[in-house]
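The instructor's notes for this session suggest beginning with a concrete chain rather than abstract definitions. Hand out the sequence below and ask the class to guess, before any prediction is shown, which regions might be ordered.
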Amino acid sequence: MKKTTLFFLMVTAFLHSQSKDELMLKDIYKFSLTKVQCYAWLDDLSNKIGARPSGSPGAEKGVAYTKKQLETLGIDKVYLQEVMVPKWVRGEKETAYILDNKTKIAVPICALGGSVATSQKGLNAEVIEVHSIEEVKQLGVAVKGKIVFYNRPMEPENIEAFKSYGNCVDQRFYGAKEAALQGAVGTIVRSMNLRLDDFPHTGAQSYGDLPKANYIPTAAISTNGAELLSKKLKENSHLQFFMKLSCKQYDDVLSYNVIGEITGTEHPEKIMVVGGHLDSWDLADGAQDDGAGCVQAMGVAEIFKKLNYKPKNTIRVVLFMNEEFGGKGGKKYEELSKLNQENHIFALESDSGGFSPRGFSLECDEANFNKVNSWVKLFEPYLIHSFVKGHAGSDITPLTSSKIVKAGLKPDSQRYFDYHHAANDKFDSVNKRELELGAATMASFIYLFDQYGID
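After discussion, reveal the predicted structure:
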């Protein structure tokens, strides 16, 4: 037998020994790592458009840009879905300093989303340090007339950084409300960040059902600033803190979710969603949160289209608006889904940064969780190993159908909170290869659910 014939037979036998799913995943990863446009799209979103807070000109530009890019892919349908969103504007850059024995020590702060402004002269008051909302309740009248300083750090011992975030973010979201109820005149919150640096991290906060007359200004302080303030308070418990915020809340404005579809060939009425949120905070261009998730979702559509994959079910890319400050995009999507009697069988969200993918967090029953675990071997060559039950994503949380599997992409979380909601969440923080691996992992997961359905 000739060597060429033997080689051909060996190659043929090898290919036959590989399943169609293994071959498809190989094709998906190869295309994503060599041809997908994710990184170029993110470059444009970050460096040509920039910050995209809901209701802003940047958000409008982001809507127009992503709609145009989806249209260039030649998928079956691209359209906009109207949604009214909050508009909050930061105004002038915040200023703050510690007043210790007539010495002014400047510290980095930023207003939290939805905060009211201080007076034009700023706010100056004594500070009281606490580590929980419960502590504020216990202190009661002792906080009256003071600035409450929430200084509970993210727990460093958790390997899963999102667990640490979840265990301390209540002080950012609810802290101002509780302090106001006890008569405080303002709040300062330690930034949700595992490292010590000079970047204050913003984020949403809520006054709940407080009357507007009782709203107090609230801001985040950098982790270095928090350490310094805590140290100074131990030396002088009566020191003063000054801050000036110029933010303003406006009436809701019209914006859009951006949607693109590849129609299913066998079950077009069954919908599989893949998405991220198009809005960002205003301090930076939101490359990690969540420009990365948006371009990865767009990348799934590109991968399927360019590989000529014909899905059995309808694949719908959804770029949600206003996740950061109200979640109106996800709620409107569900509202219209119910109105149109749509049947969603699967939803996948990427909103944990563009770092190396590690697996998926799933909201599903045991039967579908077992199905996912039967695919573990397919993902092992790509170092995807973590398939766990847990939160899938904020924008797909409102989504309901008679039976649905929800999933969230789980990238490596160790560096995410270095950038989350801060001024360093920029394009240069995203690694091209890691971003593309995430898009491939998402496309592979969707492919498998499209092929085998849900149980």
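Then share the key points. Residues 158 and 164 are 6 Å apart (CA to CA). Residues 6-17 have pLDDT under 50 and may be disordered.
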